[in-house]
């Protein structure tokens, strides 16, 4: 069966999600995250696209971008292939890292543009990785509010949508981005709830530890594993606490 053609955005703006093959972890440590952001910067210089938002999660990445001098499909191919080349050398691996076909949705009005950006920025909160947007290191939110050092985001266009003086626009931006919501975007329909048995097999298969012994592990290693598991779609904090025997508070804190 042939693939369905992607819908073309009239504005050139797309909400994109690229996921690891078989939902595997992409970003294993801070170096991986930093390298991906640097790869975005390099690709942006060549492709000329505008970037309005991003968020790196354990096994997937969200981006909100506007096409530049080349088609978004070519931009994503350039970005992903460059990162995978570096990643495979670092981890001495071969083959694909991302699912071959990234997901995308068109963004054709200002209202949905802001909804998509809020959805992207709130990913870490909804995944239980943090309670405050500004605490998460690997999203574009910090660049908006702190003029953060990465400087790969085209912030002016978004902030202008909130009108008024710069300070007023910033306060409105913060209020909107942190507001409770039931936003449903690109990823929602594909989300899969991982069962307890699937989680047990994942812990025992990937990390080589029996679930009965998990709570006895070294604290640093245990926290590292919990952070990786929390970043996987379909795994909840309550479920992790139930399966591993670690308290809900400690899972949240990891």
Report on this structure.
The relative contact order is 0.13. Helix 1 (30-47) runs antiparallel to helix 2. It contains eleven helices and four strands. The chain folds into two domains: 13-189, Transposase IS200-like (Alpha-Beta Plaits); 193-253. Helix content is 46%, strand content 10%. The protein has helices at 30-47, 72-90, 110-121, 123-126, 141-146, 155-160, 166-178, 196-207, 219-230, 237-244, 248-253, and strands at 13-19, 50-56, 60-66, 103-107. With 254 residues, it is an alpha+beta fold. The protein has a four-stranded antiparallel β-sheet.
Q: Which short descriptors sum up this protein?
A:
Alpha-Beta Plaits
What is the strand and helix layout of this fold?
Layout: E1 13-19, H1 30-47, E2 50-56, E3 60-66, H2 72-90, E4 103-107, H3 110-121, H4 123-126, H5 141-146, H6 155-160, H7 166-178, H8 196-207, H9 219-230, H10 237-244, H11 248-253
Antiparallel strand pairs: 1-3, 1-4, 2-3
Helix pairs in contact: 1-2
Could you give a short description of this structure?
By secondary structure, the chain is of the alpha+beta class. It is built from 11 helices and 4 strands.
Element order, helices and strands? EHEEHEHHHHHHHHH
The CATH topology of the largest domain turns out to be Alpha-Beta Plaits
In the sheet with the most strands, the strands line up as: 2-3-1-4
* The top level CATH class name of the largest domain: Alpha Beta
The number of E-state strands comes to 4
Mind summarizing the main beta sheet? 4 strands, antiparallel
What CATH architecture of the largest domain do you see?
2-Layer Sandwich
Average pLDDT number:
88
Structural class: alpha+beta
Helix content: 40-55%
Number of domains: 2
How large a portion of the residues is in β-strands, by DSSP E? 5-15%
Provide the gyration radius in Å: 19 Å
**Which assembly state applies to the chains in this document?**
single chain
Contiguous runs where pLDDT drops below 50 for at least 5 residues: none
Number of helices: 11
Note the overall shape: globular
Rounded to the nearest angstrom, the distance between the terminal CA atoms is: 44 Å
CATH superfamily (homologous) name of the largest domain: Transposase IS200-like
């Amino acid at each position: 069966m042939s693939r369905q053609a992607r819908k073309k955005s009239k504005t050139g703006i797309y909400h994109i999600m690229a996921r690891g093959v078989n939902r595997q972890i992409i970003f294993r440590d801070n170096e991986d995250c930093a390298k991906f952001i640097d790869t975005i910067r390099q690709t942006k210089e060549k492709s000329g696209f505008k970037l309005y938002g991003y968020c790196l999660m354990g096994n997937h990445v969200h981006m909100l971008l506007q096409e530049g001098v080349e088609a978004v499909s070519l931009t994503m191919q350039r970005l992903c292939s460059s990162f995978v080349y570096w990643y495979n050398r670092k981890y001495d691996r071969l083959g694909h890292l991302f699912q071959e076909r990234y997901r995308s949705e068109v963004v054709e009005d200002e209202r949905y543009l802001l909804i998509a950006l809020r959805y992207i920025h709130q990913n870490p909160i909804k995944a239980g990785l943090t309670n405050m947007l500004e605490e998460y290191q690997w999203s574009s939110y910090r660049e908006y509010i702190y003029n953060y050092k990465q400087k790969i985001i085209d912030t002016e266009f978004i902030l202008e949508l909130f009108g008024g003086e710069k300070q007023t626009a910033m306060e409105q931006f913060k209020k909107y981005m942190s507001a409770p919501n039931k936003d449903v975007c690109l990823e929602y329909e594909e989300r899969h709830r991982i069962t307890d048995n699937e989680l047990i097999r994942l812990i025992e298969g990937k990390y080589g530890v029996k679930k009965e012994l998990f709570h006895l592990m070294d604290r640093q290693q245990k926290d590292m594993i919990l952070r990786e598991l929390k970043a996987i779609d379909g795994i909840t904090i309550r479920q992790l606490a139930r399966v591993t025997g670690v308290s809900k508070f400690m899972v949240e804190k990891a």
